[in-house]
Amino acid sequence: YIEKDASINEEIDRLRLASTSSLVSRQDVIIVASVSCIYGLGNPEDYKSMMVAVAKGQTIDRDEMLMRLIDIQYERNDVAFERSRFRVRGDCVEVWPSYEEYGFRIELWGDEVESLAIINPTSGEVISQQDHLFIYPAK
Fold this sequence. Notes:
The chain contains three helices and eight strands, in the order ααβαβββββββ. The protein is an alpha+beta fold and about 140 residues long. It has two domains: about 10-45, no CATH class; about 50-135, Penicillin-binding protein 1b fold (2-Layer Sandwich). It is globular.
């Protein structure tokens, strides 16, 4: 039981966003929640259309990708790496989705996606390499 509070609880917000991203990206999802949890979700098709998909080997303009992240309410912060933010270091873009407990690292070579990884947001340690990453809206 999580006590109701007028302020936004960061963990509840993360779980709500994780549930929403699972609903639009997977077929095997069942969510049990109170009625108040589903208010304000919006149209699932709109949510899905805002997703930023990145694949290894894909040709992508870095600046265009950064603008897409800003469009879906991520904030650029090259110093403090926190949920709903991204940072840029040369050809490396790190994104910490608001619905995840880990971050994503996108390494570019020019306009080509060279590698994708799931990382520990605190240490930067690579947890696993990926072929695809899907980044859903931050809010």
